[in-house]
Amino acid sequence: MDNLNATAIPAAVLADALKKIRDARAALAPYLHPLTTEQRQELPKMGDKTLAFVTKMAGYAQNLPSLMPSYLDVTGLLIDAATSNDLLEVYQELDGFTLDVDSTRMIAGSEGYTASLIGYGALQGAAKTNQPGAQAAVAELAPRFARPTNAAKATKKAGNAPAA
C-alpha cells in the first residue's frame, strides 16, 4: 500500500486552522443551542424536503397573516426558517471538512499502526538475539497485545452480572 500521508502538517498551519475554527465557533456561540443525545433523538427531524416546506410556509405565514391562527408565532417561524437556511451552508461545509479531517486521521493512524507493527516485529526478533535495548523496548510495548487471562475474564463477567 502506498504511503498516502507522506507530508507532515506544519505546526503553524495547524495552529492557524485551529484558531480560525475556534474564532468561527466563538462568533456563532451566542446563536447555537447544544443538545444532549436524548434531546436530539426527541426532536422532529428536518431534511431537505422539510426545509423547503418550512421556508415556503414561513413565506405564506408572512404574506397571508389573516389566514394564520393567532397562536402561531409567525416571527418565530420566520427566524427558525432563516436560521435553518443560513446554517445549512455552514453545516455542509463543516460536515465535508470533518469527513476530510477524519479520513486523513484514519489514513495516518492506519499507516502509523502498520509501520509500528513492522517495527515491533523487528524489535521482537532483535530481543530474541539479545540485541541491546530490544528486550526493554519489547517489554514496554508488549502490554498493548496482552490478552486477558481466563481468571480476568471470569472476574469481569462476575462484575457485570445482573443483581439477583
UniProtKB/TrEMBL annotation:
It comes from the Bacteria. This is Uncharacterized protein.
